[in-house]
Amino acid sequence: MSAVSGRRRRFKVGPVTDHPAPLVALLDGTLLDPTVPLLRPDDLGVLRGEGVFETTLVVDGVPRDLSDHLVRLAVSAEMTGMVVPGPDSWRRGIDALCSAWTGPRQVVLRMVASRGPEGASEPVCYLLAAPLSPVSARQRTDGVRVLLLDRGFTASAARAAPWLLAGAKTLSYGVNMAALRHAAANDADDVIFVASDGAVLEAPTATVVVAHGRTLLTPPTDGILDGITVRRLFRVASAAGWSTRTETVPADQLTAADGVWLASSARLLAPVVAIDGVVRTDAGLTAELAALLDVPA
Ligand SMILES: Cc1ncc(COP(=O)(O)O)c(C=O)c1O
């Protein structure tokens, strides 16, 4: 591992009841002082966003959909030409981190693999745990006001240009964060990216889900991340009698939908309560879907 090993210190977790700072662990389970730097200044993750990551929610010590996240981490790594440790290695560190956690019951767990300095033989891998932010928790019930923003290419163009890494979960989230800042500057909370042919793509950190009656729709994964939360939602909703379909969702049909949500691993399910300033409802469906998705209170 190409970390600043000289400065790395074992971090003993004291009898604390809350964690204003995150907990950090290496995959071998070593807990690190979160205030001590781990990456070198010339790590390509820092210099160029070269790396991959996953985020999931841990509830009462149990990470949700962990196998799916570890599979997707490996897929993202392969798309970026990186070799990351296998699932068992990640699980060892995650177990240690979850056992050490004594903070709130809902924890956002990040699994990170940064490419390391030029020529490094292996990436720098670590785990980060932090309490779910109050904003994310609140958006599950209060919802999000979104802007529709042009992504500048079609879903199929992204498929024809794999170097865009459109479906990989990489550390290059600068564009996504810029879109969120644009939303904040324009009296909105989030964004739905729209392809140049008018098809709904995804949000900067979430998958879009739409309801028409008792049918849930989500866009195909061409050019967007293959969302794990929507996968779980579709599984539990179809077991409860909903129809679920993966198909192109034209952005101009969002207004007519009975409900629109952003689905993601930490926030889980946030109803869209306004699109481009036009207020909309969720037809009372959010509570039902949240219960199916087992969203914690
Ligand atoms: C770009 C993007 N799309 C979709 C999602 C939702 O994916 P998941 O439900 O697996 O968290 C995320 C999650 O962070 C994301 O970053």
Quick recap of the structure?
The protein is an alpha+beta fold. It contains eight helices and 14 strands. Strand 9 and strand 10 form a beta hairpin.
Written account of the structure:
- The chain has 8 helices and 14 strands.
- Residues 1-19 have low confidence and may be disordered.
- The protein is globular.
- 27% of the residues lie in helices and 25% in strands.
- The longest helix has 14 residues, at 66-79.
- The strands form 2 sheets. Strands 7, 8, 9, 10, 11, 12, 13 and 14 form an 8-stranded mixed beta sheet that branches. A 6-stranded antiparallel beta sheet has the order 2-1-6-5-3-4.
- With 297 residues, it is an alpha+beta fold.
- The structure holds pyridoxal-5'-phosphate.
- The site of pyridoxal-5'-phosphate has 12 residues, from α7 and β12.
- Residues 55, 202, 205-207, 225, 227-229, 263-265 line the site of pyridoxal-5'-phosphate.
Characteristics:
disordered N terminus, alpha+beta, binds pyridoxal-5'-phosphate, 14 strands, 297 residues, eight-stranded mixed beta sheet, single chain, 25% strand, globular, 27% helix, six-stranded antiparallel beta sheet
Distance between the termini: 39 Å
**Total strand segments:** 14
Give a list of the ligands.
pyridoxal-5'-phosphate
Percent helix range: 25-40%
Strand percentage: 25-35%
What's the main sheet like? 8 strands, mixed
H/E element sequence: EEHEEHHEEHEHHEEEHEEEEH
Mean pLDDT: 93
Give the count of helical stretches.
Answer: 8
